[in-house]
Amino acid sequence: MGRGDKKSTKGKRTKGSYGVTRSKNAIKARMKRATSKKGTAEAAATPAKKRTPAKKKAE
């Protein structure tokens, strides 16, 4: 079982084919989940704008 084996995932990657062991739908779903996690992490990482304190009036 390795690169030459058509039935293993590694073999399918080498050959560039898809099938039961390496399904396109599963790969697409995994990629979609990964990109959606990146989007939420970036949004959480950006800091909110800091408010400047109000200036006191001179009397």
Give the SSE string.
Answer: HH
Quickly count the helices. Answer: 2
Q: Can you count the beta strands? A: 0
Strand content: under 5%
Query: What would you report as the Rg, rounded to the nearest angstrom?
Result: 25 Å
Low-confidence spans: pLDDT under 50, at least 5 residues? none
Structural category is mainly alpha
User: How many angstroms separate the termini?
Assistant: 85 Å
The biggest beta sheet is recorded as: none
Task: Give me the secondary-structure topology.
Blueprint (H helix, E strand, L loop, with lengths): L8 H7 L8 H22 L14
Question: What labels describe this entry?
Answer:
59 residues; mainly alpha; 2 helices
Condensed summary:
The termini are far apart. The protein contains 2 helices and no strands.
Q: What features would you describe in this structure?
A:
With 59 residues, the chain is mainly α. It has a domain at 1-38. The chain has 2 helices and no strands. It has helices at residues 9-15, 24-45. It is rod-shaped and about 85 Å long. The relative contact order is 0.09. The mean pLDDT is 81.
